[in-house]
Each structure stands twice: as C-alpha cells, then as structure tokens.
Amino acid sequence: MLINRFKNHIQESFPELLHKKVLLAVSGGVDSMVLLHLCKELTLDIAVAHCNFQLRGADSDADETLVINYCEENHIPIYKIAFDTETYAQTNKKSIQIAARELRYNWFKQICTDNDYHFIATAHHLDDQVETFLINFTRGTGIDGLMGIPEKNENIVRPLLIFSRDEILSYAKQHQINWREDTSNASTKYLRNKLRHLVVPILKQQNTQFLKSFQNTLTHLHETQFLASQSLKNFEEKCVIKKDDHFIISLEKAYSFKGYKYYLTHFLRKFEFASVLEIEKILQTHSGKVLKNDKFKLLKNRNEIIIYKNKSIEKHEYDINNVKDFSKLPVKLKVEEVLSIIADSDKNTIFVDCNLLKFPMILRRAQLGDIFQPFGMTGMKKVSKFFKDEKQSQLQKEHSWILVNGDGKIIWIVGLRADDRFKVTKNNQNIYKITLQK
Fold first, then answer.
1. Phi-psi region at 402: left, alpha or beta (left = phi > 0; alpha = psi -120 to 50)
2. Model pTM?
3. Cβ distance 50 to 57 under 8 Å?
4. Tens-digit pLDDT profile for residues 394-419
C-alpha cells in the first residue's frame, strides 16, 4: 500500500520530519492534497500554506476554499495569502511562472522564520522529475541539471518523489480525497505541459517500465556525479588556492588534468561564470583580461586566473591632517618618531625625513599619470610601469594604496616601494618610521 511505502520512506530518508515542525505547500491539486492526507495519517506536526495567485478568477478562490475546509475539518493550522502575481511579474520583468515561484517560496520562508517551522514540504512526484529531466536535457545542461529535482534542498523536502502521478491519483480515489484540477495544466502552451501531454505518454507507451527505468537512470547519474565530485575535489586541492578574499587557479597545474576545461568551467560556476565560450576565450587571451558579472571578477594574470568580488570601493581617498589621523585609515600604518634608523627599510617599513613632510597628506588609490622616484634610483618612473615591472596583477593594482605628501609628491607605494626624495640623510635629526601592519 502507498501509505506503508510512504511511512517507510519517511523513516528511512526523512526521519527528521518525525519530530520537527513541517510546513506543507498545498495548492488544492491532487498531489498536494494526497501529501497532506499522508502526513496527517502519520500524525506529523504539520501546518498548511496556501497561495492564491489570483490568476484563474473563481477557480483560484475555489482552490483556496477547498484547502481551508480540509484544514478546518481536520484541525490543521493554515496560512493563506493572495498575491497580485501579474503585477509582480510585470514590475520585476519576470514570467508568470518565475514570479509565482518567487512569491510563494519567499512567503514560505517567512512563515518558517516567524513560526519556527523547520521544513517546507512540497508535493513534487516522479512524473515531475521526468519532466524536469527532459526540460534540462533540451537546454543542454550538465550532469547537475540531469539530476532533476533534489529530495532535499536546504530546508525544502520532497517526500513524494518516489511515487508516480498514477499512484497518487489512485490513492486519492481510493481514500475519497477531494481535490481540484488546474485547467491550465491541460494547456500545451508551456514546455512542461507539452512534455507531460505529448512526449512522456509516448515514452511510457514504448516502455511499460519507463518510470522504473528512469529511476535506475537517476541512480546511475547520482553515482556518476559522486565520482565527478571526487575528481573535482582533487582538482581544487591541487590547482586552487584561497588567499584572503580571493581565489587563485594555477593554469599550469590545471592543464595537467585531462579535460581541464570541464574542471575550470565547473569550478567557475560557483562564481556565476557559466559561459564555456567566454572561459575558453580568457584562457587564450593576454594577461590582464577581465570577465565580470554582478558579483565577481575573473582576471587572467599570466599563468593563473584570479577570482575576486566585484565590489566598488566606497572611498578612494583619505585625508591625513596630522599624525593621529594615521590610525583612522583603512590600512594600519603605525607612525613613530625615532632618533635614528634602527633597521633597514623594507617593503613594509620606511624611514622618512620629517622636515620634508607636509600636511594634509592623502592616502589614495593609484591614478593615471602617477610618477615617483623609486627608492635607490635617481630618475622618475611611472607608477603604472613600476606595477608592470613588479609583475603586479590587476587585482593587486586595484588594492594598492599610495601615500601622498601635502605638496603632491608620492611618499610611498604602501607595502611596495618608498620614494627616494623623502629618504633620511646623515644630517637628519627628525625621523619618522612608518610601518605597514598586516
């Protein structure tokens, strides 16, 4: 019996539902009404959430009435809401389907937060799984898309995925469960409905055990995905370094992997770079090429790829009116007055002649046309040329700070090179030691 299979399935795959509060998404259709009935029979701690999307006039209201009546008769808590779905879709330039999905799941999550529900359960079943597989297949998806609908996704669970539509329908008739048909499901306007009414019946006709065969295929795909994930993990461990808030991919190491483009593409999807053609292009292009999306930048830097957040720096320039202002800067610069040079200068420590310093100073990012006299040199040099000679990546250039004197002369490219014009001589008695503290 389906009820026994459902009980065993919950105990084996969803034991957490037996002692946690569960919010059921119930539309009034046969699938969700059967899920509601099954959960009630198992005496799970449930409540119902019903959305009226106001897309089908009186039919939408009748769906709502059915769900409310069932919950009242069985003393089940219910949350209901009406959405102006069409206005939301138009305002946000989304399809009706996407708009409805966003509205309902945002509302479900809010109910869980406000009322301490641990899980959201939906009534997706095996036929939905087939349709999703075919949709993703037609779109040229990778193995992740072919995996179909996950049984668990964060706090969303789908305990009916092992049951077919026919089994659910048969159970509803056997137990005289009332439900309502959504007439839009009969239309072949949408791709999912086309597959449901025109393609899947042919597949079932050709193979009477089609759904069982499909489940076997999903099992094989899960096993394949596991092997692929292990291989990807090995790739990341050998080729990817996380440094501060960015990632560095060694292309030299990546190229040693057969099928390296697959590994790179899969890893970069985490950062919403999904175009294989763009990734291939950046591999072949010169150093300094940048791809970017709303959240991240992808930089080709010689024989590596750097991924970092695409965020604009709120402030590019800071005024320094006195020594105390050094403590207010975005980088930690410690300033001390010393009597003599007590150690050699390095990238993180400089000694400067106090008599040459003029306030207000400025700490800022590099600008086009910046020039300075690198410590130990007699001539001037463009900062951009200095960065190039130091083999600084675009990321490093963007994150470099420059300390500028009150007369406009550069004192220090912080953490890289001091300006020779401010160096301490034997005659200096007033000396500042400035240290970059990591």
1. beta
2. 0.66
3. no
4. 888 988 999 999 999 999 999 999 99
